[in-house]
Amino acid sequence: MAAPKDVHVRICNQEIVKFDLEVKALIQDIGDCSGPLSALTELNTKVKEKFQQLRHRIQELEQSAKEQDKESEKQVLLQEVENHKKQMLSNQTSWRRANLTCKIAIDNLEKAELLQGGDLFRQRKTAKESLAQTSSAITESLMGISRMMSQQVQQSEEAMQTLVNSSRTILDANEEFKSMSGTIQLGRKLITKYNRRELTDKLLIFLALALFLATVLYIVKKRLFPFL
Question: What is the CATH number of the domain that holds 68?
């Protein structure tokens, strides 16, 4: 079972990826936005909220990295934090460029509307609808990528748990082999001791038999040859 710290780190990474994709989708919407200015303001408000959530999650991941017991794991997480910060700065740069592009587009459209009147309005509406469809497709694609990455993280966690279980099984088998080795050594000592005891018993039996035969010979000698 994964430790609470590992679960928190995994959740932080998933949330960071999610917010990063949502920020990119909103920046794309801003770049494609052709007005009005209120629509741009609404999109910028959403981007600010997502950046705030993203920044908060990165700070949580950094705090978790500092709380790691192993120095190697701590350095890996701190490197991930640094990469997330660089990505967030890149998104902020893209955000500013998208705003500039959108404002230029809005200004150009407003000037064109003054010159062309109603025809341009209809063209603008059609272009806006097309851009909205494209933006929706891009957003759906990004969310699909987010779901796929979440699944990959889950699969990685399951693979890690399998490796941990396999390691435990190997350690248990090693302990059993050590126990069996001790039992075999004890059996070997007992067999050696038994062999020595058997040799001693044979020697004692031989000596007893020799003594018995000597006694018998002595008695026979006294009975048959008493004068000797």
Answer: 1.20.58.400
- The answer for residues whose C-beta is within 8 angstroms of residue 138's C-beta and 6 or more apart is 25, 28
CA-nearest of 21, 19, 4 to 64 is 4
**Helices (H) and strands (E) in the chain — how many of each?**
4, 0
What's the total number of domains in the chain?
1
- The answer to the question of residue 138 being in a domain is no
Tens digit of each residue's pLDDT, the chain (228 residues)? 445 567 888 888 999 999 999 999 999 999 888 778 888 899 999 999 999 999 999 999 888 888 888 888 889 899 999 999 999 999 999 999 999 988 888 888 878 777 876 555 566 667 777 777 776 777 777 777 777 777 776 776 776 777 667 667 777 767 776 777 777 787 788 778 767 777 787 788 888 888 888 888 878 777 777 666
- The long-range contacts involving 78-83, CB below 8 angstroms and separated by at least 24 positions, are 80/13
Q: What is the pTM of this model?
A: 0.47
Instruction: Decide: 85 and 43 in contact? Cβ < 8 Å.
Output: no
Does residue 102 form part of some domain?
yes
What residues have CB less than 8 Å from 13, skipping those under 6 apart?
A: 61, 80, 153
Look up the domain containing 38 and give its range: 1-115
> Can you give 15-48 as a three-state secondary structure string?
HHHHHHHHHHHHHHHHHHCCCCHHHHHHHHHHHH
